[in-house]
Specification:
Layout lengths: L1 H11 L22 E2 L8 E3 L5 E12 L7 E6 L8 E4 L3 E8 L7 E4 L20 E7 L5 E7 L5 H7 L3 E6 L1 H5 L10 E9 L13 H6 L5 E4 L2 E2 L1 E5 L3 E8 L6 E5 L5 E5 L4 E8 L2 E3 L4 E7 L7 E6 L4 E8 L30 E9 L2 E4 L11 E4 L3 E8 L5 E5 L4 E6 L14 E4 L4 E7 L10 E5 L2 H6 L2 E7 L2
Parallel strand pairs: 1-14, 3-6, 5-10, 11-15, 14-22, 23-26, 25-32
Antiparallel strand pairs: 2-3, 3-4, 6-8, 7-9, 9-10, 11-12, 12-13, 15-20, 16-19, 16-21, 17-18, 17-20, 21-22, 23-24, 26-30, 27-29, 27-31, 28-30, 31-32
């Protein structure tokens, strides 16, 4: 089986990706793995008199040559496609000014960040065209790789597909003292993985069928940091990859073409307590992971990072002809103390959520998203068990705003080893029930509530989403 995966990835590395099968196309791809990986720039900021770090983001239209001899109309943040990486530290106070230069309403949601509802950037916080929104909040959570993307009511999928997304990296004392690769873009490399499809004029082809509505929009062209089939040159050493599944609906099962082991060191919202050796990494839309890959014995060769579900090689990694650099893997990364003082889980309130899906209808607990309706009311500071049941065969990645949670069980049994880190997005497989331990420490009002929803963006837009407030008793 391992050999078969290796062969398939090896063959695919030399074949150009085809366009969406339904389209008749005349545009051509760049030669596979002929373009360098683009590294999203670090967002610049001003330091205000009180020490606040002020960032300016502009949502704008753009054009990108994904294909030879043609340009695709896109959205971007401070650029043509995607946005800069916002990198900050725990206890920083941030002011972020978001200007909407698009011809439609939009808003930016800080996915995974702990903040109050009026700062969260949900659909209730829509920014009209040619106006701005300024938000100020303090970073009070663990080091991890988070991200930001639009959360416009019924348009999240379309606007993300056009290019509105970026990484949000938080550092803390654990991450700063850990012996890990830390040179951004050199040995600490961000990878935003997405899929797209194009028409004969190289324009994005978004939702146009019942299948797209029900299964989510998936393309056969894979982009990494906005580049189709890029390459990256690295030294023969251990490198760190910060990976975001930024696709609307596609799941990825990531493997290396030589089937080598690698180590997962972080999930959505924290480090794992110790590195976890794996050969394959499954990421659902919205999920993130950080991995360490030892390339020290592979100098002057190349390997591919690919997706075993689609049998596509996503990125070529060229290892330079240099002296190898040895690396000592940390035996421990952190101690996850959150929720450790919850001794009587059976005494906690249980909230039940049913993910419902039938022909051309989606909802949660039998109700579709309604901007005027608050589905759940939470007491500030409370810890609860959220029981998420998937009543259909299709897996759904479930996301909760304003918090990080602990996965307790799957069908009253154990969880996957890499789910011991704190999470904010988790896959609920078909006919499965998950128990999550969730604490709510940030307020959210009726005017600016938090959301919970499926992170297949077409499902979210179609109604598989609800709203909740968090207020003092």
């Amino acid at each position: 089986m391992k050999r078969r995966i290796f062969v398939k990835l090896g063959i695919l590395s030399s074949i150009s990706t085809s366009l969406y099968a339904k389209e008749k196309n005349s545009v051509r791809f760049y030669k596979t793995f002929s373009q360098a990986l683009l590294i999203p720039p670090l967002a610049q900021y001003n330091v205000l008199k009180d020490g606040t770090k002020e960032f300016n983001l502009n949502l704008q239209e753009g054009e990108v040559s994904f294909l030879q001899g043609a340009k695709t109309k896109t959205y971007g943040i401070n650029g043509n496609f995607l946005g800069p990486t916002i990198k900050v530290e725990k206890n920083d106070t941030l002011k972020i000014n978001v200007k909407n230069s698009l011809k439609e309403e939009s808003v930016i949601h800080w996915h995974g960040l702990h903040l109050e509802g009026h700062n969260d950037g949900g659909p209730n916080r829509s920014i009209k065209k040619n106006t701005s929104w300024s938000t100020t909040f303090k970073i009070q959570q663990r080091a991890a790789t988070y991200w930001y993307h639009p959360h416009t009511h019924e348009k999240t999928g379309a606007q993300t597909y056009k290019g509105l997304a970026g990484l949000f990296i938080i550092e803390d004392e654990d991450s700063k003292k850990a012996n890990l690769p830390k040179e951004y873009g050199i040995d600490d490399i961000p990878l935003i993985i997405q899929d797209r499809r194009f028409d004969k004029n190289a324009n994005f082809v978004y939702k146009y069928s019942m299948h797209d509505e029900m299964m989510g929009v998936k393309g056969k062209v894979f982009l990494v940091n906005g580049v189709n089939a890029p390459y990256v040159d690295v030294s023969p050493k251990t490198i760190r990859l910060r990976i975001l599944n930024g696709s609307n609906a596609r799941f990825y099962s990531l493997v290396f073409s030589n089937i080598q082991d690698f180590y997962q060191i972080a999930g959505d919202a924290s480090f794992l307590e110790k590195p976890l050796k794996i050969k394959k990494l499954l990421l659902a839309p919205g999920e993130r992971a950080e991995i360490l890959v030892d390339l020290s014995t592979l100098k002057n060769t190349s390997i591919y990072l690919g997706d075993s579900l689609s049998n596509k090689a996503l990125i070529k990694i060229n290892i330079k002809n240099e002296n190898k650099q040895n690396f000592i893997l940390p035996s421990r990364l952190t101690t996850i103390h959150e929720y450790s003082n919850i001794r009587k889980e059976k005494a906690l309130r249980i909230r039940n959520f049913s993910l419902d899906m039938r022909m051309m209808w989606m909802g949660i607990n039998g109700k579709q998203m309604d901007m005027s309706y608050i589905n759940e009311k939470i007491i500030l500071g409370e810890t609860e068990i959220w029981r998420i049941k998937n009543n259909n065969e299709m897996p759904h990645p479930f996301h909760i705003h304003g918090c990080s949670f602990k996965v307790l069980s799957r069908n009253n049994k154990g969880i996957f080893p890499n789910e011991t880190a704190l999470k904010d997005t988790v896959v609920v497989y078909g006919e499965e029930t998950l128990d999550l331990l969730v604490q709510f420490n940030y307020k959210a009002s009726k005017e600016y509530p938090f959301m919970y929803h499926c992170h297949i963006l077409e499902h979210e837009d179609a109604g598989m989403m609800g709203q909740f407030t968090v207020e003092e008793a």
